[in-house]
Amino acid sequence: MLAKVFVTLKNGVLDPQGKAIHHAATTIGYHAFADVRQGKYFEIRLDTGVDAGDARAEVEKFAHDVLSNPVIEDYRVELVQ
User: Fold this and answer.
1) Count of H-run helices and E-run strands, the chain
2) Residue 61: band (very low, low, confident or very high) from pLDDT cuts 50, 70, 90
3) Residue 47 maps to which CATH number?
4) For 59-73, what is the mean pLDDT?
5) I need a labelling partner for 7 at 20 to 30 A (CA). Which of 32, 36, 56, 63 fits?
6) CA 77 to centroid of chain Cα atoms
7) pTM, whole model, 2 decimals?
8) Angle at 44 between CA 17 and CA 65, to 5 degrees
9) Following DSSP, what letter does each residue of 31-66 receive, concatenated?
10) How confident is the model over 23-29, as a mean pLDDT?
11) Region 47-59 average pLDDT
12) How far is CA 19 from CA 13, 15, 28, 33, 54, in A?
């Protein structure tokens, strides 16, 4: 089983890296983008035989405690069989 974790800044939190990417995109000719927000992506391969419910709970806790800063970031966990 594979867990995919997406970490993004919460709405309203300034994203200077996203702004820099947006500016660079505009500079090289990409004018249809209204905004760019950057984030982090993680893949966690889980041991075989782990119960999906237990796996989700453990990955959710790991994402909250380690992979994200819950004050300024949101995260989403997807499990793939």
Assistant:
1) 2, 3
2) very high
3) 3.30.1280.10
4) 98
5) 32
6) 9
7) 0.88
8) 65
9) -S-S----EEEEEEEPPTT--HHHHHHHHHHHIIII
10) 98
11) 95
12) 12, 6, 14, 11, 38
- Considering only CA atoms, which of 2, 4, 3, 14 is closest in space to residue 73? 14
- Please state, in angstroms and rounded to a whole number, the distance separating the CA atoms of residues 79 and 27: 38
Amino acid 5 reads V
Q: Which domain holds residue 35?
A: 2-80
What's the pLDDT tens digit per position in 35-50? 999 999 999 999 999 9
Assign 77 a pLDDT band (cuts: 50, 70, 90): very high
Contacting residues for 68 by C-beta, under 8 A, at least 6 apart:
7, 74, 75
Q: How many domains does the chain have?
A: 1
